[in-house]
Amino acid sequence: MKEIIKVRNLTTKFGQKVVHDNISITIYEGEIYGILGASGSGKSTLLREMILLEHSFKGLIEIMGKDITKLSLKEEIELKKNWGVLFQFGALFSSLNVLENISVVLEEYTDLPEEFIIKTAISKLKLTGLKEEVAYQMPKNLSGGMVKRAALARALALDPKLLFLDEPTSGLDPVSARAFDSLIKELHSLFKPTVVMVTHDPQTIANVLDRFCILIDKKVVFEGTFDEAVKSTDKKVQKFLKPILMEIE
Ligand SMILES: Nc1ncnc2c1ncn2[C@@H]1O[C@H](COP(=O)(O)OP(=O)(O)OP(=O)(O)O)[C@@H](O)[C@H]1O
């Protein structure tokens, strides 16, 4: 298996507050990898560090063979073309309609003619199960599930090798959440991107992730598959898994 993201000896501090204390994880190409942990354990911070939005760390983060602290501007742009991001609350631009929200990414990172941008944006929208007419709606008129799908369509705009998802099912009702899990699995089997997601959703953890890490008390206390976690004798891992196992029973 080929490594696509390597985190080594990473320490994150905000002032005196240590969020990650010398943590290391490895994400392999093509897997669906979860960053798990209690609230405030630094999951989103780790994801934000990987996508160059947070820089308060020491140690190594290597993505597709590149140390992300040593990128030239050109390399940074090239690397960003390889990934799509779905932020926790969808984070669509409220003043733009759905089509424009997806198109901005294509306009920023490609030289495609406008007609092709529109066709591509609509095809991404359809991939996420939304109808073409949704393209002309404003985000405020969409349901929570539709916002997530539209935001996922935007994340898919550049056919990313890497898809970063921050709490993809949070805020969704159970039916929409499970439908979103299925969509992620379907898109993954179609395009085989590496998916890195922050989640605390027990069903997603048990049914969608290939491997995951668990952050507790600033450390990575576990990295591996769900079955391996269930078999772990580590007290912290067992305590973390208990409510998840009860929920999925
Ligand atoms: N830019 C920042 N400046 C100062 N503190 C920060 C910053 N970003 C995050 N933190 C702190 O780092 C800690 C970890 O935050 P983070 O959002 O990564 O946790 P999380 O595990 O994703 O939590 P949740 O599950 O609640 O979203 C929190 O105590 C948070 O307040």
UniProtKB/TrEMBL annotation:
InterPro entries: AAA+_ATPase, ABC_transporter-like_ATP-bd, P-loop_NTPase. Keywords: ATP-binding, Nucleotide-binding, Transport. The keyword Nucleotide-binding applies. Gene3D superfamilies: P-loop containing nucleotide triphosphate hydrolases (3.40.50.300). Pfam families: ABC_tran. GO terms for molecular function: ATP binding; ATP hydrolysis activity. Residues 5-242 form the ABC transporter domain. The keyword Isomerase does not apply. This is ATP-binding cassette domain-containing protein. PROSITE patterns: ABC_TRANSPORTER_2.
